Every structure is written in structure tokens, then in C-alpha cells.
Amino acid sequence: TWTMGSIIEESVAAIREQVGDKRVILGLSGGVDSSVVAALCARAIGRQLTCVFVNHGLLRKNEPEEVEEVFTRQFDVDFVHVHAEDRYAALLADVVEPEEKRRIIGSQFWKEFFTVAQDLDGVQFLAQGTIYPDIIESGARKTGGKASTIKSHHNLIPFPEGVHFDLIEPLDHFFKDEVRALGTALGLPDHIVHRQPFPGPGLAIRIIGTVTLEKLSILKEADAIVREELDAYNAAVFAETGERNSERSVWQYFAVLPDVKSVGVMGDERTYAYPIILRAVESSDAMTADWAKLPYEVLGRISSRIVAEVPGVNRVAYDITSKPPATIEWE
Ligand code: XMP
Q1: Which of 13, 128, 223, 305 has its CA 20 to 30 A from that of 253?
Q2: Oligomeric state and partners (predicted)?
Q3: Index of the ligand 1 atom closest to the CA of residue 197
């Protein structure tokens, strides 16, 4: 029978056989798929794996620290933390257009990644978290699939001249649920295994207009409150229903920082500060989504906490638009 244990044993054996005594490199984003590949390769080949974590400074509050913790303390792999925050900040300084942000962030990732790769000796393989639906989707893309033409998502690897790696894609016949189950069986923590979708370009596409360090810091704090409250809300729904994606739970939830300011009042003082937009949707595949009918108490608590705890914010608005006609993200 197909137990999780036997699936892992088979994958581990296949990776060992393919890799032999060569080295493997992997771009670790902190997302579910690349983390599960890393955990699987850690079990199969240990320190023959180098995980490259390119920190673009656009992850959510505490995420870089959490990724580093898991892949240095819990798994025994070679872990490289690339501090690229300043380079990304400089590249994005004057950029407003969303697709331009995506293009810059995506191409800089590969520059950072190959800089590390070229310094390592004897790397023959590149491991990737491609899952089965990615393969279907890229098929759809070639035949003019619509989703990918609205926002550019990823993922064709622009190998520099003269560089070649053989690919290892151990998840390419699994669906997302199976990948999560694998992750749990391999000992990855819930905050990674059940992480909500998070776009590769990160918070840069949740700051409308130019990205600055001040705006990033406001958004990180506000987003941390949104996640804390809605993680707790989802946990309560899960405790009641036993379902992680029940009709009442929220699928993706985050804060957006628009490029406007509005007037408010605090004590006797007039304020002129940013609003935060709360986005929370129900979905199963991100192709369509409904805005979440959250209880007023939950909405109220998120709003009060953000204006009380995040300097520079004096108003909170809730986005009550479904997809279509809106998209889930604002950019
Ligand atoms: P939209 O905004 O198109 O998003 O309704 C659908 C899903 O895709 C995520 N998303 C991205 N993921 N790179 C990614 O890896 C991107 O550039 C990107 N843009 C959107 C979004 O968070 C949602 O889950």
C-alpha cells in the first residue's frame, strides 16, 4: 500500500540514485514546495545539498528568521543566506509599474542565485519544487492560457552562458495536498506546511507605487496583525469543523498599503497618514475568489489594533470585491 512512509522512502532512494556523490543546489523561498524539496533532499543526501535563500527584504515580518531557523537547526543541509535587501531596495527605488517590479525582482533573484552557484564546486544538479499542477499550467500557458497573461508568474530558468544544471523535480507528480502531507511527515513545522499562498515578488506588489523602507516597515507591522488575528480565526474554525479549508475559513489574507494619505484625528491632533487595506478571500485555486464574510468583531479588532499599534496608519478599509473582476492581489 501507498503509505506516506513508503512514498518518502521511494523518493529518497530515487534522489540518492540520481545524485550519487554530486552536489545539488536549491533556491529556497520559504514556501511550501521548495521547503518540502529541501526536507526531502536533506533526508536523501544531507550536506550534499546547498539551499540558497535569497533575502530580498520583501518577505513578511519574521519570515527570514523562521526559514533560517528551520533549515539550520532542524535539517542538516548547507544553508546560504544571501542578504540582498539593499540591492533590491536600490533596484526598486523608482519603480511604480507592477509588471516592472515583477521583472526586476525575478531577474535579480537569478543573478543572486547564480552568483552563489558559481562559487560552489562540483554542483551538477538544480532541485526545484515543481508540482504536478505547475506542469499542467505551463502547458496551458503555451497554448495561450489566460491566467498567465494577466500577471506574469514565473519560472523559466535563465541559465547564464555556459552554465548548465540537470534538474531534480521530486514533487512533479504530486498535488498540493500531497506535498503538504509529505512536508508534515518529513517534520516540517505547520507554519511552513500550511502557509497561505504568498507571491514571489513579496510585499513589493502589496505596496502600491514606489517601495520605500518606511512603507515596507508599515506594511510588515500591519500584515503581522492581520495574520495573527486571521490565523487565530482559522484555527478556531478548524477546531470546530475539523476542516482546514471549510466554507468559513479564510484562504488568503493580507494587508495592502496604497499610495494615498487621508486625514484623521488622534487625541487633539490632526493626522495625515496612510490607510491600510485589508484583503481576505475564500478560494480553492486562486482562479476565482470571494471576499470573506468575516464576523464584524474580527474586522473591528483588526482595525483597532492596526491604527493603535502601527505608527503612520490612521484608517483601515476592507476590500469587498471578488475575483473576477478584481484580482486577489492589488498589483
Ligand atoms: P491574482 O492577484 O492574480 O493572484 O488574483 C492569484 C494568486 O497568485 C498569487 N500571485 C503570485 N504568485 N508570483 C507568485 O508567485 C506573482 O507574481 C504573483 N502574483 C499573484 C496571489 O497571491 C494569489 O494567491
Answers
A1: 128
A2: Homodimer.
A3: 24
